[in-house]
UniProtKB/TrEMBL annotation:
<feature type="domain" description="Intradiol ring-cleavage dioxygenases">
    <location>
        <begin position="142"/>
        <end position="217"/>
    </location>
</feature>
<keyword id="KW-0223">Dioxygenase</keyword>
<dbReference type="Pfam" id="PF00775">
    <property type="entry name" value="Dioxygenase_C"/>
</dbReference>
<dbReference type="InterPro" id="IPR015889">
    <property type="entry name" value="Intradiol_dOase_core"/>
</dbReference>
<protein>
    <submittedName>
        <fullName>Dioxygenase</fullName>
    </submittedName>
</protein>
<dbReference type="GO" id="GO:0016702">
    <property type="term" value="F:oxidoreductase activity, acting on single donors with incorporation of molecular oxygen, incorporation of two atoms of oxygen"/>
</dbReference>
<dbReference type="InterPro" id="IPR000627">
    <property type="entry name" value="Intradiol_dOase_C"/>
</dbReference>
<feature type="region of interest" description="Disordered">
    <location>
        <begin position="53"/>
        <end position="89"/>
    </location>
</feature>
<feature type="region of interest" description="Disordered">
    <location>
        <begin position="1"/>
        <end position="23"/>
    </location>
</feature>
<dbReference type="GO" id="GO:0008199">
    <property type="term" value="F:ferric iron binding"/>
</dbReference>
<feature type="compositionally biased region" description="Polar residues">
    <location>
        <begin position="1"/>
        <end position="10"/>
    </location>
</feature>
<keyword id="KW-0560">Oxidoreductase</keyword>
Amino acid sequence: MTTSPGTPESSGPHPNHDRGLEFDVSTLLSRRRTFGVLFGGAATAALAACTPTDGAGSGTATSSASSATPSGTASSSTTAAASPSASASPTVTRAIAECGVEIPQETAGPYPGDGSNGPNVLEASGVVRKDITSSFGTSGTKVDGVPLTVTLTLLDNANGCVPLSCAAVYAWHCDRDGKYSLYDSGLENENYLRGVQEADANGQLSFTTVFPGAYNGRWPHIHFEVFESLSNATSAGQLLAVSQIALTDAACRDVYATAGYETSAANFPNTTLKSDNVFGDDGGIYQLATMTGSAKAGYTAALNVTI
């Protein structure tokens, strides 16, 4: 859940990371009209007015009245009170059960790269991409790490949990050493592990990346911002949600035991989900990804995001 304003970060490579909603509001409101708890009717109107776009994201979006698919997206007739059939997949069952519980609004932290605190990668050509493992523009540096595919399913709570087929997500996270492109020393000219994707007709989008590292003071996580459209995302426009994905304990232990993650292996035991200053309020129950795979074969992480 959202951290309390002014909550300090534990000592580590990022002493100012995730200082709370107050920090983000003070910077985000300088260029955005709507944020987090200020959504009210404006956010509902934005969802209702959203129109599909043919961007460079995951494909042409269609009507949000799409039928349910095995990927876990509820149909236009599905509501929070609907009961899954006996043959429904675990993903569909979870989507129906969680729909109506909106994703917790969280801090974007001091390293968003969205123009609210220094550099703005959102307006850079090339930011709309599925594979975010390398920098784009003047640098082609590619990061190493255990492969990770992240899939988000976006659902519109205000309209009966239909897919948000024309929304877009900007995602970013640290590298396997716990460092952030654009901000950490020596990485100011890099923009890897940052990218934008547009939701398809099922409200789904995916990123190909590497498993994030662990640094003191935070549980391993991935940041993301949801925009009402691809065009809004690439112009740093109105936000619908700001939140974070929590990675599972088992996956972290597996990955951090591999070569290259030595720093993360040392840092990981120092912070638990309960002590984390973002997920600690409820253990990240609505932000904990469903994860499959292995360090050897790579991992997948899936999360339903109800807005």
